[in-house]
Every structure is written in C-alpha cells, then in structure tokens.
Please model this.
Amino acid sequence: MQFEQIRVERRDEVALLTLHRPERLNAWTPRMSVELVDAIERANQDRDVGAIVVTGAGRGFCAGADMADTFQSRLDGRDPGEDTAGGEGGLPRGLDWVALVRESKPLIAAVNGAAVGVGLTMILPFDVIVASERARFGMFFIKMGLVPELASTHFLVQRMGFGRASEMCLSGRLYAAAEAYEKGLADRLVPHDEVAPQAIALAREIGANPAPQLRMTKRLLTRNGSATDLSEIQRSETRLLRECWETPEHKEAVRAFLEKRPPKFS
Model:
C-alpha cells in the first residue's frame, strides 16, 4: 500500500508510525485508518520488529475525525470512504480496530499534542500511553451529538474508573496532560521533546522480551481485565502457562539464568 496520510519508519527493532496530516492536526479519515492497519499488520509480520510506536506530526496527535471529510460528507449523503456506514464505530467495513490492537505486538502511543474524539479512542486499547506535557485529551462526542466508539466506554472505565470516565464523557471537557496523567488516562507524563524518544525506548525494552509470550500476556490482560470469575481467570492463565513451559523462549530464559548471561531470544 502507498502511504499518503501516515509515515512509517524503523528505529532499530521499533516500528514508528506517524499520523501525517499536520496541516489538519492529523485529523482522522477512513484512509488513515486503512493505512494504519496495513502498517501494523506489516510490523506484526516482521520478525525484526519487537514493538510499535504511534505518534503525530506537527503540533497535534490527532484532532479527531476530519469534520468536512467525514461528518459533513455523511450528512450530505456521501459515505466518507471505505464503506464506513457498514463498519463498526464509523470505521471501514471489515476493520476490527480493537481486536487488531489487542492481538498485535505491543503498541505504545506517543501523544505529542491534542488527542480528541477518535484520536483518543483509537489509543485507549494500546498497551501504554506516553503523554507530552503539551498533550490534551478530550471525549468530545457529546458536544457533537454523538456517543463514543471503539469500545472506549470500556477502556476509559478501565483506565480512569467509572466516575472519572463518566465525567469525561458526559462533560465533553478538554483535559490537560497533567490532569489526564493524574486521573490515570495517560501512563507516563514526559517533557515535550522527550515524548517520542521515551516511547521508543520503552518500546525497545518491551520488545526485547519473547514475542510469543508478549502476545499471550496481552491476550490474558484483554480477557481477564474485567472478568470476575477468578477460577476461570486462573484456568486461562494456566492453559497458557503450560504452553510456555514447552517453548524455546522459556528454555532459553532458564538456561541463560543458570549460565549467568543475558537470554538470546530469536
């Protein structure tokens, strides 16, 4: 695929994806989501990539859906593209963003500016959100006569708690980076110039761990994060633990520990 609205780079073992519509604060379009999916799937298939970082070009991370190219087009009777009318949450038909993110290699958001609307909901299921001190976060759906999408009413409650998530969604207020971090929405708060470097460094640290076990751990977190049946949670963990016992990654980790050397995961 020819990338028009994102940029894809390799920083050693990290895939860096940059939303690239800086003149529109990287406002979302159906084309952007298709390009992101393609780039993530390519990174997932590349054995040399350990983790993925997503950031924005210019002053913004993502200013939500492009008002003219999405909402106005739909009001004018035209689909914004990629059959969003037939998709989930206004995304193109056949694109399950949440499933892709949760089944992917580790994903880290480096939020360098405003992340509102879909610019926020798209990263809520990411593994880590690193925020610049200049970042801003908003669930503006109520202000637009809409409701949230992309399972954000689940992930926002997981990250912030019920009361804080309710306030954010029902008020439609814009949150500064420090408040978002204090309330649990962002996982790290860093100086603006450090947001991409720190996210990439964290991606390297995470991606250095064995890839199959990273995916397994993500699967457990996805399934068990809101589960209440503790017996079933333990059973699901045990099933994967037994798989791990037979993997070359586990065997190499044990050998490396006993031999007092760093493990070498393929």
